[in-house]
């Protein structure tokens, strides 16, 4: 009984595993391509929105942003929030 079950499962796996392996490229390639396209779309939209917001910033703030100084300021403010007992984790 158990030998017959083993042989049946072994035969099924021997038949289906190569088919599954052959299907990995046609399945994964389109999925990976879709992921890359979604990331590109997200980044392009984020860049576009940031450019729209940037026009409302004063010249000094735009300059700080361009030089990367705002990242440090944002991190400093986040650290201050973290130190508050009401802030939780940010």
Automatic annotation (TrEMBL):
One of its GO terms (biological process) is actin cortical patch localization. The keyword Cytoplasm applies. Coiled coil: none annotated. One of its GO terms (cellular component) is medial cortex. It is found in: Cytoplasm, Cytoskeleton. SUPFAM superfamilies: BAR/IMD domain-like. One of its GO terms (molecular function) is lipid binding. It comes from the Eukaryota. The keyword Cytoplasm applies. PROSITE patterns: BAR. Keywords: Cytoplasm, Cytoskeleton. Residues 1-66 form the BAR domain. Pfam families: BAR (PF03114). This is BAR domain-containing protein. The lineage of its organism: Eukaryota, Fungi, Dikarya, Ascomycota, Pezizomycotina.
């Amino acid at each position: 009984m158990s030998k017959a079950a083993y042989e049946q499962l072994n035969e099924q796996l021997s038949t289906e595993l190569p088919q599954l392996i052959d299907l990995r490229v046609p399945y994964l390639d389109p999925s990976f391509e879709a992921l890359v396209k979604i990331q590109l779309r997200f980044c392009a939209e984020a860049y576009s929105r940031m450019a729209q917001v940037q026009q409302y910033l004063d010249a000094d703030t735009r300059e700080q942003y361009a030089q990367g100084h705002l990242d440090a300021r944002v991190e400093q403010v986040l650290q201050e929030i973290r130190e508050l007992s009401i802030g939780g984790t940010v």
